[in-house]
């Protein structure tokens, strides 16, 4: 009984190891795509957002529900003043704007802008190009390694 249990544990471990290696490889690729995207955004003419500003921007544009300063602070687990500073910068760049909620004047709604939608489209394009380049690089690497072995 103990031997069969040990065997099943070893069998399970041999199945988990490739999955962990695949997950690590995928994570490495995603981090590389993120790096390439951020480098492209920094190099081009246009807004240069901090990670907090980018997090606020992406949360507002990728999640459909209406956003408030209070809700963004809770979702991102940062203070309301930090969200306000991020929104100040996004407002300066016309990537988002704040509006008093007509139903609850104590609440401030965050609205999307046309310029913000265009910026998101640009981010998607840059990420798509970076992801495609990584995919090509991944496909070419094994071919080169195979040629060396031959």
Automatic annotation (TrEMBL):
Superkingdom in the source lineage: Bacteria
Instruction: Write down the PROSITE patterns for this protein, in alphabetical order.
Output: HTH_MARR_2
GO molecular-function annotation terms?
Answer: DNA-binding transcription factor activity
Q: Which SUPFAM superfamilies match?
A: Winged helix' DNA-binding domain
What residues does the HTH marR-type domain cover?
27-150
| SMART domains the UniProt entry points to | HTH_MARR
**One matching Pfam family:** MarR_2
The processes (GO biological process) annotated in the record are: response to stress
Q: What is this protein's name?
A: HTH marR-type domain-containing protein
């Amino acid at each position: 009984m103990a031997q069969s249990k040990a065997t099943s544990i070893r069998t399970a471990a041999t199945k988990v190891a490739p999955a962990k290696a695949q997950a690590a490889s995928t994570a490495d690729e995603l981090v590389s795509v993120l790096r390439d995207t951020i480098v492209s955004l920094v190099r081009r003419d246009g807004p240069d957002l901090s990670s907090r500003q980018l997090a606020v921007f992406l949360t507002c544009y990728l999640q459909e529900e209406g956003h408030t300063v209070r809700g963004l602070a809770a979702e991102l687990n940062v203070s309301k003043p930090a969200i306000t500073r991020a929104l100040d910068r996004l407002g300066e760049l016309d990537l988002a704007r704040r509006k008093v909620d007509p139903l609850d004047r104590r609440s401030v709604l965050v609205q999307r802008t046309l310029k913000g939608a265009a910026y998101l489209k640009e981010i998607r394009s840059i990420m798509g190009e970076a992801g495609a380049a990584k995919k090509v690089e991944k496909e070419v690497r094994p071919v080169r390694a195979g040629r060396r072995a031959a």
